[in-house]
From TrEMBL:
Belongs to the NIBP family. Signal peptide: none annotated. Residues 363-510 form the Trs120/TRAPPC9 TPR region domain. Keywords: Golgi apparatus. Pfam families: TPR_TRAPPC9-Trs120, TRAPPC9-Trs120. It is found in: Golgi apparatus. GO terms for cellular component: trans-Golgi network. It comes from Dryoscopus gambensis. It comes from the Eukaryota. Transmembrane segments: none annotated. InterPro entries: TPR_TRAPPC9_Trs120, Trs120_TRAPPC9, Trs120_TRAPPC9_N. The keyword Kinase does not apply. The lineage of its organism: Eukaryota, Metazoa, Chordata, Craniata, Vertebrata. This is TPPC9 protein.
């Protein structure tokens, strides 16, 4: 059973040859990845004397059980192995070369060719010319690495082409072997190999396999013809798993035809140095492009006498963008019948979503993603769960479902600190939580909350802020705790219950006792700036009541020194009012 899904799979990966690059013995990680980066840059090579282009997919780790599904879909088969090793003396060489052979045996049954890159060995051994081994004095003196890889890829092409011709050509009545996936082998013991049903099954599966080989060999239109024929044959015998694979092959070839820029959202692969694509090869994927005809006899092997020669090279074999999605749905429904094909089903869903994202059909894409969420695989490790939820989040983001994307990213963050992990990754958890903020309409700048109505769901935002506080504490950063708690109190005050206000203020009091709050901007390692949080909403004034001043501050009446009552009415010794009243008294006496 294939147990490790590749969440980065795209429809165009079906045209790639899989090459594994691995170290042998003790190789410093930095040195290995320096060479791996150079090797993996040679991912697109123009085949000499041909209009065809080969695409290579490099991996530095690949589970051997996934390799067993190579007959089902040939892009899953490890066809090339490149090993990197250090060897400082001639004495170590025999043991080093033996390790190379042991490594080859791991993928032995599927390898077309392999190479060993040796760093550090000089002298007589290093001077002997060999095709399978390259010697370099050091990691800094290895200018020919890219050229060696191009030659290696050409050798892979020669083997691929011979297999394609061998499988596609009429063998004059030879029996076609029945290709199987690992879990099927026990089911076919004792079957009648002479029955018409069995022969059709063999023919359909082989036809689909030849379609895969054509796609890898750069013969897009030929692959479409083979896939169409395989679909008809396999449908007639209800061979559902392989029918699903033939339909998916049809989808992949059609996606490559319609979307030459790719669906992965990554930067396009770099062309091999010195490999110049001809104008014809450059136009290869454009609608209406003509493809080389399949060699004579290729379409009449073992009694399949379908007269399709007129269709070869015509775009009518290619599915329309709408049909691609319909065929993906059909293929996934067939995969769903087999619990051992969970990884194949999951990856097909992801590929379909990437195509729908380009077609801007978000609602349909979300249905495929929803299906992917519920596909039950074996018990996943915590690391695999983090990867799964992160990719789901990225795909939801791509189709514009920002809140759903944030939901899955938050789950990934929580998974980083799962109790079952011996050393929880609180920094990774905190970083992922920060990435969820835009999806929940949450900014960490208090000024964004000072105007207008509140955006987003306050209850979810408060939960997220509490989680940021907790992650900050577990990272051992009390200053961050104070900043996030202050922000929570200032911006969410209207939504906190009395008990919550009490809890938050008590927590804030406890943290500020260790690390007082400041009005400085906090800059995080990734450059994000957290502005200071002034408490403009606190304290809350509910009612105003005038209180008596203390005795020492109360005003007192002054006693008149002249014994005149009128003067007590005014703080002035002489005022116009007093003068006026005295004048009136004088007039009365007169």
């Amino acid at each position: 059973k294939m147990s490790v899904p590749d969440y980065m799979q795209c429809a165009e990966d079906h045209q790639t040859l899989l090459v594994v690059v691995q170290p042998i013995g003790i190789v410093p990680e930095e040195s290995f990845f320096r060479i791996y980066k150079r090797i993996s840059a040679v991912s697109q090579v123009n085949v000499r004397d041909s209009q065809r282009v080969l695409y290579i997919r490099y991996r530095h780790h690949y589970p051997p059980e996934n390799n067993e599904w190579g007959d089902f879909q040939t892009h899953r088969k490890v066809v090339g192995l490149i090993t990197i090793t250090e060897c400082s003396s001639a004495k170590e060489w025999p043991q080093t070369f033996e390790k190379f052979h042991l490594q080859k045996e791991m993928y032995g049954s599927t390898l077309y060719d392999s190479r060993l890159f040796v760093f550090g060995l000089q002298g007589e051994i290093a001077e002997q010319p060999r095709t399978d081994v390259a010697f370099y004095p050091s990691y800094d003196e290895c200018e020919t690495v890219e050229k060696r890889i191009e030659d290696f890829i050409e050798s892979l092409f020669i083997v691929l082409e011979s297999k394609r011709l061998d499988r596609a050509t009429d063998k004059s009545g030879d029996k076609i072997p029945l290709l199987c996936v690992p879990f099927e082998k026990k089911d076919f013991v004792g079957l009648d190999t002479d029955s018409r049903h069995y022969k059709k099954r063999c023919q359909g599966r082989m036809r689909k396999h030849v379609g895969d080989l054509c796609l890898q060999a750069g013969m897009l239109q030929d692959s479409l013809v083979h896939y169409h024929m395989a679909v008809e044959l396999l449908r007639s015998v209800n061979d559902f798993l392989w029918l699903g694979a033939a339909l998916e092959g049809l989808c992949s070839a059609s996606v490559i035809y319609h979307y030459p820029g790719g669906t992965g959202g990554k930067v396009g692969p770099r062309r091999a140095q010195g490999g110049s694509l001809s104008a014809e090869a450059g136009n290869r994927h454009r609608p209406g492009a003509q493809e080389v005809l399949i060699d004579p006899g290729a379409l009449t092997s073992n009694g399949i006498n379908a007269d399709t020669s007129a269709e070869i090279g015509r775009a009518k074999n290619c599915l329309s963008p709408e049909d691609i999605i319909e065929k993906y749905k059909e293929a996934i429904s067939y995969y769903g019948k087999y619990k051992n094909a969970g990884v194949i089903e999951l990856e097909a869903c992801v590929k379909a979503v990437r195509v729908l994202a380009i077609q801007k059909r978000s609602m349909e894409a979300s249905e495929f993603l929803q299906n992917a969420v519920y596909i039950n695989l074996r018990q996943l490790s915590e690391e695999e769960k983090i990867q799964r939820y992160s990719i789901l989040s990225e795909l939801y983001e791509r189709i514009g479902f920002h809140r759903k994307s944030a939901f899955f990213k938050r789950i990934a963050a929580m998974q980083c600190a799962a109790p079952s992990i011996p050393e929880p990754g609180w920094r990774a958890c905190y970083k992922l939580l920060l990435e969820t903020l835009p999806g929940y309409s949450l900014s960490l700048d208090p000024q964004d909350f000072s105007k207008g109505t509140h955006r987003g769901w306050a209850a979810v935002q408060m939960r997220l802020l509490h989680e940021l506080v907790y992650a900050s504490r577990r990272m051992g950063n009390p200053a961050l705790c104070v900043r996030h708690l202050s922000f929570l109190l200032q911006t969410m005050l209207d939504f906190l219950s009395d008990q919550e206000k009490k809890d938050v203020t008590q927590s804030l009091e406890s943290y500020t006792a260790k690390c007082p709050g400041t009005m400085e901007v906090i800059t995080l390692p990734d450059g994000l700036k957290l502005p200071p949080v002034p408490f403009t909403k606190l304290p809350i004034v509910k009612s105003v009541k005038l209180l008596n001043l203390p005795t020492s501050l109360r005003p007192h009446k002054m006693k008149s020194l002249l014994g005149q009552n009128v003067s007590t009415k005014s703080p002035f010794i002489y005022s116009p009012i007093i003068a006026h009243s005295r004048g009136e008294e004088r007039n009365k006496k007169i």
